[in-house]
Amino acid sequence: MTVYVREATRADYAALSGLFEEIDRLHSEHLPEIFRARRGPTRSFGEIASLIEGHDSDILVAEVDGVMTGCAIVYTWQSRDRPLLEPLRYAMVDTIVVRSGYRRMGIGRRLMMHVELWAQERGMSRIELNVFEFNTDALAFYKALGYETLSRRLVKRLGDLEVSGSMATLPVVVRAATRRDLLQLEAAFPFGPPEKHAERLDRQDRDKVVYLIAWRGDQPVGHGLLKWDGASEGHIRAAFGGTCPDVEDLFVVEASRSQGIGTQILQAAEKLATYRGFSRLGLSVDLRNVAARALYERLGYRDAGLGPYAERGHFIGRDGRREYWEETCVYLVKSLDPTVNTRS
Prior knowledge:
Layout: E1 4-7, H1 13-30, H2 45-53, E2 57-64, E3 67-78, E4 89-98, H3 107-121, E5 127-129, H4 136-144, E6 172-176, H5 182-188, H6 196-205, E7 209-216, E8 219-227, H7 234-240, E9 246-252, H8 261-275, E10 280-286, H9 290-298, E11 302-303, E12 309-316, E13 322-335, H10 338-341
């Protein structure tokens, strides 16, 4: 097999977009809180053209029998002009990807060899790159090429609330659902429309909602749906005009109730809403659910003054039968304090 490496041209945009889609999907699956899951090109034609035609950047592509099998984005980086820092000019590898089906054939190694030549031709004696910890294959690949760890970037996810309930044997963590959770969610929460969890993940991919799941160990024990565009009822939307996100379908499995898990899910939703710049959060409660309303009021939610209203609907259950539901609700709203939810 002969691997040919060359500089990319504008005509390569479609093939490059296909390669980037593979690496972008990998990152969105492992780090959905950072990378959005998107269909289609994630980099514009203008962005790619500027990298190809820039004086201090390039995209190198690998071909096998006329098929583009990999690429690497490389550009020049200059250290900041500060008294403490030595003036460094080096090559930075932004992205490298090899098409599935062509991996472990030496294509990535050939691309990195040409990256080194690119840097040396420009008088640079140093290459740097960043790798996420989940990508163990990439870490092993770079280590084999002689790359060493220079620094570590650490993160603490403040949206993950870890507290032990009085009856819990394991801590409960609240986080956004991912595609990898789907089978577990369907098994743990089998009620409602069969497509409910998949549909919510689709809406999350479009940045319409955040599907918050409470986990005890590896078991989902509760959920809540944070909707950025607010409640769907017309009179509520008219009252708040898109300025009040809504929490829908807050639920905790029976064996884990009265342990603060519902509170954790709401607190996670409140933090996310505050991070987005919202000053309030709303939810509806069935007038018959006295315990839930008492909890919400203890947490600072107050009657929005819109009066009782009916919520009703139906769905086709897993057994194929049509199921109907109806509630008489009141809408509650809480004013969010940004100093509480965003301070470090």
